[in-house]
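Lecture 7 notes: from sequence to structure.

We start with a single chain of 215 residues. Read the sequence below before looking at the structure.
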Amino acid sequence: MPYDSEDTLESWYVTVTYGMASDEEWEDEEDGDDGAPAAGSEIGHLILWRLRDCTGDNRWEAADAESGDLEVIVSAVFGRSQRTGYSAAFEKAVTHPVGDLLILDRVSLDKEWRGFGLGPALAGEAVRRLSGGCCAVAVFPAMGEYPEGREQVTEAHRRQARKKIAALWESIGFQPFRRGVWLLDTALRQPEELMKARRAELRALGTAFQRRPSA
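Now the structure, written as tokens:
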């Protein structure tokens, strides 16, 4: 990002690892299972952005300079005239529309870890830890990866993929806003309750994984 926008657009790269390399419990598990990844090895990552208020910079310009994906989100969130303050639609959708905006940009997991509900659970944990002082969290459900032969992917396939991805974000408290952007209102109790449910599912999944029969 432009150097002078670092205070306005703050980046977060969250690494998802299989256990911790310094944890003896995970090292013991690795010794007993030839099929397990090395303790501390990366199995995915998340990318988030915190768009800070009251820095004096134009927040729309800072986001637009970083990527087109961020521009799509901030264009839906900010007003059309100055592109610095929140839009009337945003102020109506969010309980306390004052403060920073957290943007969930990307959630990526290695293929063998997909399909278990890890994505929403991990996103919820990242949001819980990074959203302090933010009035909302925004996300734009879109395909992060395409199958081979991208040019052959139909619009119907894209719509179905976006629908599935949106359902995942809805499971941790995001609600449709406008122009394809979804918002999570940090002042509401429901997202916290949904995240607790996803956390419980994650713990149950971890327990089942640890108890699986050895190969």
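The mean pLDDT is 84. Keep this in mind for problem set 3.
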